[in-house]
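Thread: "does anyone have the structure for this chain?"

Original post by V.I.:
We have the sequence but no experimental structure in hand. Need at least a predicted one for the grant figures.
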Amino acid sequence: IGTAWLMGCKASDTIVMTVNPLPAYTMTYNSPLCQADTLKIFPASSFTGVSYSWAGPNSCTSTSANALRAHIGFADTGYYVGTATLNGCTYRDSINVRIKPLPQSFTILNNSPQCQGNTLSMSGGTSSTGVTWAWSGPNSYNSASQSISFTNAQPSISGDYILAATLNGCTAVDTLHAHVIAIPASPSVTANTPVCVGQALNLGAGGTGPGFIWIGPNGCTTFLQTPVINNTTVIAAV
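Reply from O.Q.:
Generated one for you, tokens below.
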């Protein structure tokens, strides 16, 4: 109520004042975060009719109530500022987002493929320190060692081996397909020996392969299963 006085005379008027509330809120995010995760920033409380805007490192902006940023990296660390507006009243809050690194330069070293009976070896590699390891593979295989090996390896251990490397709660995963090649059965070798000079020498290798190679005198080499050497000479004798 406002009142004006003039020489004992007064006049009054009334005005109704409205005070709009500030849309006060607290910013939060899905901590802890690892490198390559999705960052989710959201207000801990909400008001009906509020409009939001967000701004942060690496040119991050959003006008949604919840800000999302997929596959984050170290460039996304730092302070994010959120602005809430309600009926012309504005409130701001900020939050410092921290991101934990994955094991760096993570890879699987291996000597696959190997022939049956050899040693198959695999090892996790990283430039980070303090990493823990977890292997899983065919036949319910598992190990917590950084390096694993199989002596006298058999084809039955072939398959996908999954390695998880964990650093401070952040895990990187890679998969290796290891292959142990079965040794074929020894071929049953035949020949129409002895033969005379000038006659054909017929060689045979019983079996299913998958491939054959013959090596003989005078630089003779062939990949046929049943080769024929025509017009033999004494040089063809072993």
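V.I.: this helps a lot. The chain has a mean pLDDT of 88.
O.Q.: and The radius of gyration is 39 Å.
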